[in-house]
Write a structure and sequence with these properties.
2 domains; six-stranded mixed β-sheet; 329 residues; Alpha-Beta Plaits; four-stranded antiparallel β-sheet; Rossmann fold; alpha/beta; 37% helix
């Protein structure tokens, strides 16, 4: 089976005008404008197979949204090639637009003062969806999103979580095969985030849709994605599984130990890097090669009630990757 998304040495450079302060700078800027190039994305390559859910991670300004905009045809690449479902995105052909959707958590397509159902009817007209099929799709998606009662309410009266669900319904009404999701749970509370994740998982399983997901909430990534792409300063620095990411970039383990009596931080520093001490519970970060020796010392020298060893939080691991800018090999 051929990849549904193919990205080969993709790049985007923005020319930005440079202006000196003062009247002289303003006149020079007007008559002899000069520019400098800002590299937003550089030499990015990857493929995604049909039906995959892939996380796309990176700090603010790393190039995630710029890459998504090139994949959806909103902006033209400066270099490289990209194909989505056999189409060249920036050509914006009808067959391509019917295949994909883009959901941005900070943007909305629903009309603020109208009921959600009216906005959905407009979308149905744009995509030429027959009335019977429209009602069937709305009913099916509304059931999956638990949104039936909110469809007749004005969008402005919906909660943030309900509005995000309605945005997803509108974006998926034409039943796209490729979903580009940019921060779809941004600003939602924990319950709403969970509902959106559950829906995306169900939609992927039911329709075999391919999903490329960006999120600053690591729970979104760990719940939905077995594979992640990581971009830093416009370059792809990692493409692989979450488990491999931990093994490659996390040479340490976290030890959580419950003691019979409270100990100060100073009394525990000889065992490893103390992350925190909360009452009788202490958390250590220990290099993998010292793990066995440290556990033996803890059990021999302290009154240990309970002890667990885990990987560090994935947020910490990814922070280390971005800080180093390292590339997994």
């Amino acid at each position: 089976m051929s990849p549904i998304i193919t990205v080969d040495r993709l790049g985007k450079i923005y020319p930005v005008a440079v202006k000196e302060p003062g009247l002289k700078g303003t006149l020079s800027h007007f008559f002899h404008r000069q520019y400098r190039n800002i590299v937003a994305v550089q030499d990015v390559s990857f493929t995604i197979e049909p039906g995959e859910i892939v996380g796309f991670l990176g700090p603010n300004g790393a190039g995630k949204t710029t890459t998504l905009k090139m994949l959806t045809g909103l902006i033209h690449p400066s270099s490289g090639q990209v194909r989505v479902a056999g189409q060249i995105p920036f050509q914006r052909k009808e067959a391509f637009l019917r295949t994909i959707t883009l959901v941005m958590g900070q943007k909305q397509q629903l009309i603020w003062d109208l009921p959600t159902l009216d906005s959905l009817r407009i979308n149905a007209a744009v995509y030429g969806i027959p009335d019977r099929e429209f009602r069937q799709r709305v009913g099916e998606l509304a059931d999956m999103l638990s949104l039936q009662e909110q469809l007749t309410q004005p969008v402005r009266k919906l909660s943030l979580g309900q509005r995000m669900k309605a945005e997803l319904l509108a974006a998926l009404l034409h039943r796209p095969n490729v979903l580009f999701l940019d921060e779809p749970t941004l600003g939602l509370d924990v319950n709403a985030q969970t509902n959106v994740r559950d829906f995306l998982r169900d939609y992927n399983q039911k329709y075999g849709a391919t999903v490329l997901l960006t999120s600053h909430y690591m729970a979104d990534i760990t719940a939905l994605c077995k594979r992640v792409l990581m971009i830093h300063q416009g370059r792809l620095i990692y493409d692989g599984g979450l488990d491999q990411l931990l093994e490659t970039f996390s040479p340490c383990r976290e030890i959580t130990v419950e003691l019979a009596q409270e100990r100060s931080v100073q009394a525990l520093t000889s065992f490893g890097q103390v992350q925190s001490v909360e009452g009788r519970v202490a958390h250590f970060i220990v290099p993998q090669e010292k793990l066995t020796h440290t556990i033996s010392r803890l059990l021999a020298e302290l009154d240990v009630v309970d002890l667990t060893v885990t990987d560090p939080p994935i947020e910490d691991v990814i922070g280390q990757v971005f800080a180093s800018g390292a590339v997994a090999t």
